[in-house]
Amino acid sequence: MEKKITMAINWAGACGGCDVAILDMEEMIFDITDLADIVYWPVAMDFKRDDLIAMEKDSIDIVLFNGTVRTSEQEEDAKILRERCKVMIAFGACSAFGGIPGLANVSDKEGIFQIAYDDTASTVNPRGATPQTVHKVDGGEITLPEFYDTVKTLDQVVDVDYYVPGCPPTRNTIAQAVGVIAAYAKGEELPPKGASISSAKALCDECKRVTTKTGKRIPEVIRPHEVVADPERCFLEQGILCMGPFTAGGCGGSCINAHMPCRGCYGPTSKLLDPGAEALSTFGSIVGKGGEDFQIRGPMKAPVNNIKDPIGSFYRFTFPSALVNRTVKEGK
């Protein structure tokens, strides 16, 4: 039997769904263990951070890194793993694009702590205590990682070789990622650096919903819970915001098949620079009354401004990787 490659799996700023998705592969997980010895996966096995620190440079062949980089510890983990691995894979939407945790970039550390430790109705915190990086106790100090103002994608911190999108990646996408791992193990040619394990085409190319392509305008944007949608007809033609035209395919249309519009967890196709901005621009040009009086301060403004939660709608999974990727307080 050929010598196995070595592999690490790391969980940073995320919900843990990516790790669960790997475990949910059922018997397919044996395809990974046949190819690789897992030398670091602390969420699933008895590995300690000291085990990782003790490893030598380039001693890990492949790392699957899931989650955003939100704290100093997560940034340090990313840099340690990058130094010790030969191939770094951003696994899941959070690592690849920022994911839902990246929506925290509408605020900063101060604002988040204010809500979490003071403003919430269930919080009783008369001293106004918040987490500190250093706290002195009898006999020494207790330390915590620094909580950053900005949520970052993995490639904003270290060099990334490949991307596996999804929230979490689907079983089929993980199977394709296993194919990359197998190719590496066998010394075969790998995809070009920077490749994403997704379709080169938009999700619309896979969608089985019917579009009439009449060119008619959308009178207003409707949220999914506000209407009983036609299960056969294109969401967009019904006025329901769907990120399908701006999102890479390859997920199998899981949400669409469950009669929910796409929210964009597979990120942009290679032809899109900023899917959220392009989606917002597109909706701005097709929503509301057209004609000569269709001006930015006229009929166009009201229907576009009525879109609830535009950042959460257009940048739900990609805010930290957008061209404008956070709000900035005056004076900061």
UniProtKB/TrEMBL annotation:
It comes from the Bacteria. The keyword Lipid biosynthesis does not apply. Signal peptide: none annotated. InterPro entries: Hydrogenase_assoc-protein, NADH_UbQ_OxRdtase-like_20kDa, NiFe_Hase_small_N_sf. It holds the Pfam family Oxidored_q6. Keywords: Oxidoreductase, Periplasm. One of its GO terms (cellular component) is periplasmic space. PROSITE patterns: PROKAR_LIPOPROTEIN. This is F420-non-reducing hydrogenase subunit G.
